[in-house]
Write the structure tokens for this entry.
Amino acid sequence: MKAQGRPRGRQKRLTALLPSGGGSAGTAARTPFVVLIVVLLGSGLITLLLLNSALNQGSFELSKLEKTTDELTDEQQALQQEVDAYSAPGALERRARRLGMVPGGSPAFLLPDGTVRGRTGPATSQGAPLSTSAEPSAPGVSGHRSPSAPPLPPVRDLAGAPAPDGAAPAAQAAPSPTTSGR
């Protein structure tokens, strides 16, 4: 009889752990919840996969645009260097001489009161070197006379004086017979 009691005690313990009989109704109630969780996890993983793909595509596009930007920047710098080479004073002088141009020599300036300052002469191929400025030098730090300063007296002949912009004196160029200082 003892042999029959053991299985019953074991069966009671197993019955207490696993309910029998009415368990099919509990399993049926859990099925929609489990399906819902599986669907939510699956849709979340698919969403993450699509998001990751979109980010990778944006990254590839960004790197392609950066490469294009680098190429265009290099091209812009090369073009700027070419423009700078054509704009250099030496290059401008060579091109001007090829076209038959010569430096103008010492300039003459017309003052506000109608007088002429300086003496002009004909331009020759051995004329004065090219100047860096076409404006006359005036007293003052800024290069302009103050309105309260007295007007400069007219100068009739500056044959031996240097030009206002530092160019060679007018005596190097022969004076024109039709040009005279006022």
The beta strands are 109-110, 116-117.
